[in-house]
Amino acid sequence: MTTSARSEWLVPAGLIALSVIPVVAGSVRLFQLAGGAGITPDNARFFAAPLPVVLHIVSVTVFCVFGAFQFAPGFRRRQPSWHRAAGRMLVPCGLVAALSGLWMTQSYPHVEHDGAILHAIRLLVGSAMVLFICLGLAAIRRRDIPRHRAWMMRGYALGLGAGTQVLTHLPWFLFPNIQGELTRALFMGAGWVINLAVVEWFLLHQRRRRASSTFRDV
User: What is the predicted pLDDT for the residue at 213?
Assistant: First the structure.
């Protein structure tokens, strides 16, 4: 494998690495539900209504892990059939992940530190993820590939929020005295905002590169 070929896998590898902790935590949750683990105040809501959390864990795991491979442009070009087949799987998984997240937000009781602000943020993020994926699907049906990529990247950024939230929550665990509803909402929201900001920076960089290339060709 050449250096350039290896380098194109850095981004997918980083995205999968960012997904590891949420994926492992989700797998543990599924084993707890399947194995009848002890019920605690933190997990009682999942045992009372397991369907939305099971749908969310399975769909978001597939969406984040397999979606990471879509960020290898050389691989997409070499395997266009795989890209299309994966897209047909990732779109419904992304929608199920977002809709099940909205379902949990509306149906599960709040636990400690999850207040009205975080509730509103979750509703906004889940709705935005559904919208972004639907816009991405509509764009590819029009054969508008640049807009398809942009909207799907935004949807993926929101789906990967739990991975970045592991990092944004480090101060939460290091300094317990700051824990509260507001800081919880800020740290959760920061994970989604950071991911979207990275995507928007990348898209802006791509537009500037295309504009510069067009200018040089004139």
Answer: 64
